[in-house]
Amino acid sequence: KEEAEEIAEILCQSNVQRQSEELHIMQEAEEIIRSENLDKNEKILVLHHDGWHHGVIGIVASKLTEKYNLPCILISFEDGVSEGKGSGRSIDGFNLHTALSECSDSLERFGGHEMAAGLTIRVENIPEFIASMNEYAKKIMQQQEPANAEIDAVVLPHEITVEAVERLAD
């Protein structure tokens, strides 16, 4: 029992540390997006930074993709290392693996599938990669039909209750 409690405590501490790192990366990424108006000017978010934890950037990329409804790739470089590791997440209708294949001249390695991918890139190839990914994304997004939403009912604010949400969950 004592050993299990010790392990649980270590896991809880690790989780708190991961959440803190995730929040830090999210804040830095959103500052880059805001300062460069990327969410208004681009069809894909490709961000890079020194020191982002490469084990957490995929989680943050997923959150940014959900928030901005844009594919997102985050790339982290460690101090003194010329190759960075990236993690990307996508949206319906944008095949991230195909996009990376089309822009692979800038990459050392990549892999994944339509909705998620990982990559390795040299620091000097970042500008070319960002430009080619944005060009590809603009081309692909222009060809797509806008998404249609089906509306089942109009719900007024006073009708949204815990009970109503619980009934919908059934």
Give a verbal description of the structure.
This protein is of the alpha+beta class and 170 residues long. It has six helices and five strands; from the N terminus they run ααβαββαββαα. The protein has helices at 2-35, 38-41, 57-68, 96-102, 126-143, 162-169; strands at residues 45-50, 72-77, 83-89, 107-112, 116-122. It has a five-stranded mixed beta sheet, with helices on both faces. A hairpin with a 5-residue loop joins strand 2 (72-77) and strand 3. The longest helix is centred in the N-terminal third of the chain and has 34 residues, at 2-35. The two termini are 38 Å apart. The model has no long low-confidence stretch (mean pLDDT 90).
